[in-house]
């Protein structure tokens, strides 16, 4: 369906369908009060933070921020375009689609439809050739020698493009218009200065590349001998953009209901070979290095990606490029690892040689991003000399500075301090990075923890073209709060000067049970700091409602006028402040609360000391506060 769908029809359609029916058909939900909750289908989680409000007809996940109505859910979950999602809802509601308003690019719609159809026909043709062509034994023997069975060849739709310049042309090009479509699909090449065409793929093993809906969008062809290029991919077309697509991702998701990690390899046969040996979670890039788009897409699906490279010099260089791409993308709660294979081996050959269990052991022992990062930089630096350590930190700090604010970033900065013997403040000064508010005085509320993904107009921004509530992306590096621009993030982000209030809120949002360990936080009840006020309200609510999920919290607070304005701030913190590892969350939370207490002690002591005359009661109060302050600092002083 193309064109502009009348808004009145969309409004009527949404009134006819029930968001609970739409979601419950795809997600297991449990009734919690007047709402329904379950594990979010848009990100990996162990405890439910996804909530459906049947009364208000919307869903929301406090873990990843996904939210909207029936239409947006179908678009996100079923990966449908806006018109396709409307059409699907119309079928469910039993109503006919209206005629479209406004100009419609019928030619483009028809071209794309034709391309999908021809690519599917081409895939079937290549598979048929692998079974029936007179020269099929050459291709079949190649696949057998690579250890591939017929079952897995069929699973991945592997086929054979036989020798000859016009096999596909003769089979599919019924007329001149079809020839043009096959060229637009990347399957034919038009000979220069003529109207003659010939097949792009000849005498190659053919691997269909599928999108997330399983549609064939392109092909990769692998030579049977030593000719160049070894792999030939379809060109960029209306259906295929190689910087965004990954070979094997559709198959990995289809045959693995609960993906926990994905391996990024270099060849199509590596993907298929690993799958045949029980490792069905490998994907391959399509003639390009791994891009940030690839990683962002994968890390939304799984908590861990593993880069798999040859152990030679070329593999090391490729790994370094992958590291540089991953650094700005990785966030707390996600992990990237690097596996280097023995020289001369690839994943396909190695898994055949040593088996699934041994290969998975290699995966489990692969280098975490931080280890690979420091190992790579230390190899080129003389860490025994001052000059070497200075050069090392000069290389490392700017790279770490690109990372998302979080515990991993903080720990990597602390590792540099450990290796160089310099404090973070000294390193920042030595490397001429922008200096920020020191830890000696209480910092102003730190509203910015990295580039904001959410507007501050409200809970979500309503986008009529999607007929749903969606987060609004911001590309600028400043976040506006209360009509005033907050200061930009410091070098190192919140990892160096993080806001303890925001961090504590983030921990409680993701681990609500820890609220029982926080006490009443009365010290924050009358603060002027908005973040600390929010922490007080959140802690109080979680203690009064044990076992509540963050999704239910969002719905409950919508119904209270004094709490409703705070939801936007919670939403910002949930996405801008990193998720804390559950293993050390209690420790970090305690540290945050201690810092907040120290801040208020310092502030109250300063206020009392600034008064010209103190009453006896104020003097006693001042002595008590000073004793508390001294005790707190004594507990933090490391033993010598």
From TrEMBL:
<keyword id="KW-0808">Transferase</keyword>
<dbReference type="InterPro" id="IPR036977">
    <property type="entry name" value="DNA_primase_Znf_CHC2"/>
</dbReference>
<keyword id="KW-0639">Primosome</keyword>
<keyword id="KW-0240">DNA-directed RNA polymerase</keyword>
<protein>
    <recommendedName>
        <fullName>DNA primase</fullName>
        <ecNumber>2.7.7.101</ecNumber>
    </recommendedName>
</protein>
<keyword id="KW-0863">Zinc-finger</keyword>
<dbReference type="InterPro" id="IPR016136">
    <property type="entry name" value="DNA_helicase_N/primase_C"/>
</dbReference>
<keyword id="KW-0479">Metal-binding</keyword>
<dbReference type="InterPro" id="IPR013173">
    <property type="entry name" value="DNA_primase_DnaG_DnaB-bd_dom"/>
</dbReference>
<dbReference type="Pfam" id="PF01807">
    <property type="entry name" value="Zn_ribbon_DnaG"/>
</dbReference>
<comment type="similarity">
    <text>Belongs to the DnaG primase family.</text>
</comment>
<dbReference type="InterPro" id="IPR037068">
    <property type="entry name" value="DNA_primase_core_N_sf"/>
</dbReference>
<dbReference type="InterPro" id="IPR019475">
    <property type="entry name" value="DNA_primase_DnaB-bd"/>
</dbReference>
<keyword id="KW-0460">Magnesium</keyword>
<dbReference type="InterPro" id="IPR050219">
    <property type="entry name" value="DnaG_primase"/>
</dbReference>
<dbReference type="InterPro" id="IPR013264">
    <property type="entry name" value="DNAG_N"/>
</dbReference>
<feature type="zinc finger region" description="CHC2-type">
    <location>
        <begin position="40"/>
        <end position="64"/>
    </location>
</feature>
<dbReference type="InterPro" id="IPR034151">
    <property type="entry name" value="TOPRIM_DnaG_bac"/>
</dbReference>
<dbReference type="Pfam" id="PF08278">
    <property type="entry name" value="DnaG_DnaB_bind"/>
</dbReference>
<keyword id="KW-0548">Nucleotidyltransferase</keyword>
<keyword id="KW-0238">DNA-binding</keyword>
<dbReference type="InterPro" id="IPR006295">
    <property type="entry name" value="DNA_primase_DnaG"/>
</dbReference>
<feature type="region of interest" description="Disordered">
    <location>
        <begin position="435"/>
        <end position="455"/>
    </location>
</feature>
<dbReference type="InterPro" id="IPR030846">
    <property type="entry name" value="DnaG_bac"/>
</dbReference>
<comment type="subunit">
    <text>Monomer. Interacts with DnaB.</text>
</comment>
<dbReference type="Pfam" id="PF08275">
    <property type="entry name" value="DNAG_N"/>
</dbReference>
<dbReference type="InterPro" id="IPR006171">
    <property type="entry name" value="TOPRIM_dom"/>
</dbReference>
<keyword id="KW-0804">Transcription</keyword>
<comment type="function">
    <text>RNA polymerase that catalyzes the synthesis of short RNA molecules used as primers for DNA polymerase during DNA replication.</text>
</comment>
<keyword id="KW-0862">Zinc</keyword>
<keyword id="KW-0235">DNA replication</keyword>
<dbReference type="Pfam" id="PF10410">
    <property type="entry name" value="DnaB_bind"/>
</dbReference>
<dbReference type="Pfam" id="PF13155">
    <property type="entry name" value="Toprim_2"/>
</dbReference>
<dbReference type="InterPro" id="IPR002694">
    <property type="entry name" value="Znf_CHC2"/>
</dbReference>
<feature type="domain" description="Toprim">
    <location>
        <begin position="260"/>
        <end position="342"/>
    </location>
</feature>
